[in-house]
Amino acid sequence: MIPRERIDNGGLILFIAISTLGLGLIVSSFISALLWAALAALLFQPLYRRILFDCRGRRNMAAALTLLIIIIAVIMPALIIGSLVIEQASGVYAKIRSGQIDFATYFGQVHAALPMRLQQWVENAGFGTFERAQTKISQALSNSASILTQRALTIGADAAAFVLSFGVGLYVSFFLLRDGEALASQIITRLPLEPTIAHRIATRFVIVVRATIKGSGIVALAQGMLGAATFWIVGMPAALLWGVLMAIAALLPAIGPAIIWLPVATYLLATGDFWQAVIVVASGVFVIGLVDNLLRPMLVGRDTGLPDWLILVTTLGGIETLGLSGIVVGPIAAAFFLTGWDILAEQKAASTRD
């Protein structure tokens, strides 16, 4: 016969699992807002503590002032840039639809500027004839550009839902700033884990979040701004849009912003814009590239303890699954995975020694 205590514990676990699943379904529409509210509270917790000291322990005022700083310094510039990007994306999409932007023509110009050996290699590299290669590549570029611009436009179409989620995120951020430390302690103590293991996982979570947002985010923002400025100087249309794409690419290890500026430089060189191509290459190598080499070790270092290939795969998978939130959630999932296996290996080694 099964002991009564075991049945009660099993019923409690089942109740907690069902109630947790139900709560998750209820708040699923605001999961991104809640996630970014938690990340903002975690990232700006040191600022909150400093303001709390200046406010002589008045937590409500300190949380409100911290939230005001976040709105002015982070959210408002992001909204302004986002609106400009949507405007430029609309223009690019309209030009693609009207035929003003024709990737087939651009590809033909690049192909004609190549040496004869490279032209023959392109024609014989599995595409059959140049016309087939031109059609396939131009269609791929057109589809990719259309998808990017259409996704940017959907942000404006869902304005009401965005405003609601935005308001929920700000509201929750206030309370997480004010009560975040106490809430985190309660969560850690209630996890069905040994206290040392729970604290280790929580510490790894904080390290990965801060390294990903503070480090990689700042580096990507700097590279995107420099890329947008470079494209504006050489007269590229929609320079801000391409700068944003460069910032997103900068979040991906082993890929980086070169995936954006290198094809642009190739096109400029092939079409006779020699000095513009030289400026783009020089900026990409000596300015944008140096930003990554100088800032990333200082801001990120190796705190995450994650290999670059794993960060790349989990970031891409996170973006595919969760959109923008996947940039942070992907590396966090990888960190939890590695931390869990490290703890298990340590426990196994300890039991073997005993």
Automatic annotation (TrEMBL):
The keyword Transmembrane helix applies. The chain crosses the membrane at residues 12-44, 65-86, 159-177, 217-234, 240-262, 274-291, 311-338. GO terms for cellular component: membrane. The keyword Membrane applies. It is found in: Membrane. It comes from the Bacteria. Its main location: membrane. Keywords: Membrane, Transmembrane, Transmembrane helix. It is a multi-pass membrane protein. It holds the Pfam family AI-2E_transport. InterPro entries: AI-2E-like. Belongs to the autoinducer-2 exporter (AI-2E) (TC 2.A.86) family. This is AI-2E family transporter.
